[in-house]
Specification:
Order of helices and strands: HHHHHHHHHHHHHHHHH
CATH class of the largest domain: Mainly Alpha
Structural class: mainly alpha
Oligomer: single chain
Largest sheet: none
Number of domains: 3
Radius of gyration: 33 Å
Number of helices: 17
Strand content: under 5%
């Protein structure tokens, strides 16, 4: 580690020395020739050439030559600026050398230079010996990824890798795992559904081409798939076929059991498309059974954890905070909901519109 810091300091110093050396040579060899005068002389010659070829008339030639001549005289009288590298080369060089050395001194004082390197394979072996419940989400995802490398043609491996990465907040990694999974097993409807939903979530609810492609593969494998039918009807409306999309949603609603908790979402979508009031949300799901499978719930919780992690590093996102509070409300995680709500309220105390959205999100009913 110390050798790395020393090498970094030397490379930084060498780079600055090279830059300053080249700048000094450029300043010494800077040409003082008047390129502006050369330009206008060339312009005068071009005007004469155009006139000789009959492309401009005599009056136009006189006017153009007079203007070019005026600019030529003005350029000849103007002082020529000579480029200089500046008087602060020594200060820049000292700072460039001193910064890495100062960083090294701070690391030696507060860091742990005595610790040896920890190869990734050694860490994997250590995590493999640890009970799964004691591992962090990122460590568990790394273990699953290592297992998948040994079984690259196992579609279930990619499914569990996607769930693990989703739980670790790595949504892009989860999507990539699912894409590899459907390449290995294109006949797996569950993988296409997970991929479509992950693509949809990654795009903040926008039906991208990749998401639509996943749902179209899903509907071919499972013609009765509710998620695929719902999203493909939304695609129709987006593309201008409002009547066709609403008709598909109504047909879907007619086939759904009365106790299905997803009826409320379909009814709300129909009402939004038709511009009519949505029915009370609890009327459609008074005694609703579990709406999502265990795998889907794991993926959802992973996505919510990823959103929370992103807001920790990039907190200036009012829509993201509203989405996070609403997600915790839907999941019934009141402790995390209240903590996120408190943080968001403090951050946007001066924005009544955001505070109103946060109150509405916190009042969202828990998913049954």
């Amino acid at each position: 580690m110390i050798a790395l810091w020393v090498l970094a300091a030397l490379l930084s110093a060498a780079a600055v020395i090279l830059i300053l050396f080249r700048a000094a040579r450029a300043a010494t060899a800077a040409e003082t020739g008047d390129t502006t005068s050369i330009f206008y002389r060339r312009q005068l010659a071009e005007i004469g050439d155009l006139a000789d070829r009959g492309l401009i008339g005599a009056d136009e030639r006189k006017g153009a030559e007079a203007e070019a001549g005026r600019r030529l005289l003005a350029a000849a009288d103007a002082p020529v600026e000579v480029w200089s590298a500046g008087p602060h080369r020594a200060v820049i060089l000292s700072a460039a050398i001193g910064a890495p050395l100062l960083a090294l001194a701070v690391y030696m004082a507060v860091g742990s230079p005595q610790l040896g390197d920890q190869p990734f394979k050694a860490r994997l072996a250590q995590w493999a010996m640890t009970p799964p419940q004691e591992l962090r989400a990122q460590e568990l995802a790394a273990l699953v990824a290592d297992k998948v490398k040994a079984r690259p043609t196992d579609p279930d491996g990619y499914k569990y890798l996607a769930l693990a990465r989703g739980g670790a907040g790595d949504l892009m990694g989860a999507v990539e795992a699912l894409r590899r999974g459907v390449r290995v097993a294109p006949e797996r409807a569950d993988l296409w559904q997970m991929l479509g939903e992950a693509e949809l979530y990654q795009a903040n609810g926008e039906l991208t081409d990749d998401a639509v492609d996943a749902f179209r593969h899903l509907i071919k494998l499972e013609p009765g798939s509710l998620p695929a039918r719902f999203q493909l009807a939304a695609v129709k409306i987006r593309d201008g076929d409002k009547a066709g999309g609403v008709a598909d949603w109504k047909a879907l609603l007619a086939e759904m059991p009365a106790a299905d908790p997803r009826r409320a979402n379909v009814q709300a979508a129909i009402a939004s498309a038709e511009g009519t009031p949505a029915p009370p949300p609890m009327a459609a799901a008074a005694a609703a059974p579990q709406g999502l499978s265990a795998d889907q719930m794991t993926a959802v919780r992973g996505m919510v954890a990823g959103l929370a992690a992103r807001l920790q590093t990039s907190p200036d996102d009012p829509a993201g905070w509203v989405q996070l509070v609403k997600a915790y409300s839907v999941l019934g995680d009141t402790q995390k909901r209240d903590a996120a709500l408190k943080t968001a309220r403090a951050r946007y105390a001066g924005k009544p519109d955001v505070l109103a959205q946060l109150r509405e999100a916190a009042a969202t009913e828990k998913m049954k």
